[in-house]
Amino acid sequence: MTTVAPVLAATAATAASAAPVDKRVGPLLRAWRERRRVSQLELALRADSSARHISFIETGRSRPSEEMVLRLAEHLDVPVRERNALLLAAGYAPHYPETPLDDPALDALRAGMERLIQGYEPYPALVVDATYTVVAANRGIMMLLDGVPESLLTPPLNAMRLTLHPEGLAPRIRNLREWRGHLLAQMERQIALYRSEPLRALYEEVAAYPMPEPGPGATPADEPAEPVPYFALPMQIEHEGRTLSFISSISTFNTPMDVTVAELAIETFLPADPATVKYLHSLAT
Q1: What's the pLDDT tens digit per position in 103-130?
Q2: Domain 104-284, CATH 3.30.1050 — does that match?
Q3: What are the residues whose beta carbons fall under 8 Å from the beta carbon of 11, sequence distance 6 or more?
Q4: Cα-flanking dihedrals φ and ψ of residue 91, to 5°?
Q5: Domain residue spans of the chain
Q6: For 76-138, where are the alpha helices, taking DSSP H only?
Q7: Pairwise CA distance, residues 2 & 117, whole Å
Q8: Which fold has domain 18-78?
């Protein structure tokens, strides 16, 4: 495995969430319930409570216990970082730790991620945090970064900047208009869920990048793309005179009990056609 960015300690400044103006636990829980489009009655049934009690909590007439806050957060699928925010708003201590990624306690996690993305070679794979800072990447990713200016490869690397910057991978992505739209929509969904100011700032930055001049064979930005003959939208990228096609898949950890772990994502790129498979394996040999 090739590590392309130093392992950074997860800090509140990196992925802190901006809570709504009203930071009381009741309005916060109501906002999450409405975001999930769940009625008070449905939430009460899920949490083994009553609609009346849920209403009292949301209006501030009743203070929920620590156990109730965690139970409601679980049934509303609230992100781990935001569960801590709910507990603080209710007057309780955070329940989930936020361990720096380079802490010895996470040695097994780091080793497991290294084995995973190394074992995925020759196909590209990388690990990013909540704001797309690259924690680690394998040789498949390094192959795609050939030719990217050193100015964009100065740590900490950011996957969105590397992909969408007009001097990064963007000029080599044949279906840039579609792939860019996919990435921006992905970030918009995350912003709506996490209310993260650092993520919003990143979104505004990369969304403002000018579209580079299309490379050979690329679809011009003002022309409709041809129908994609794949089972999912691929990233079609030029590399040494070849067009490589990849389908992206993102994995996260199940039932994380640590904020840092909860915000890690492993992105793998599966070859979308036989020609890409053959070329990558030829590099490996």
Answers
A1: 999 999 999 999 999 999 999 999 999 9
A2: no
A3: none
A4: 95, 15
A5: 18-78, 104-284
A6: 80-89, 107-119
A7: 10
A8: 434 Repressor (Amino-terminal Domain) (1.10.260)
- Segment holding 134, helix H or strand E: strand 134-137
| Sequence-distant (≥ 6) Cβ neighbours of residue 50 within 8 angstroms | 44
Token pair listed for 266:
């492993």
Q: What is the pTM of this model?
A: 0.82
Whole-angstrom distance, CA of residue 151 vs CA of residue 113: 27
User: Distance between terminal CA atoms of the chain?
Assistant: 17
Taking each continuous run of H as one helix and of E as one strand, the counts in the chain are: 13, 5
What's the CA gap between 77 and 36, in Å, rounded?
8
Tell me how far apart the alpha carbons of residues 278 and 119 are, in angstroms, rounded to a whole number.
17
CA atoms of 200 and 187, how far apart (whole Å): 8
List the beta bridge partners of residue 248: 269
Helix (H) or strand (E) holding 246: strand 242-251
Distance of CA 105 to the CA centre of its chain: 23
Give the model confidence (pLDDT) of 74-101 as tens digits. Answer: 999 999 999 999 999 999 999 999 999 9
Distance CA 244, CA 275 (A): 8
* pLDDT exceeds 70 at position 139: yes
Output the six-digit token pair for 139.
């040789």
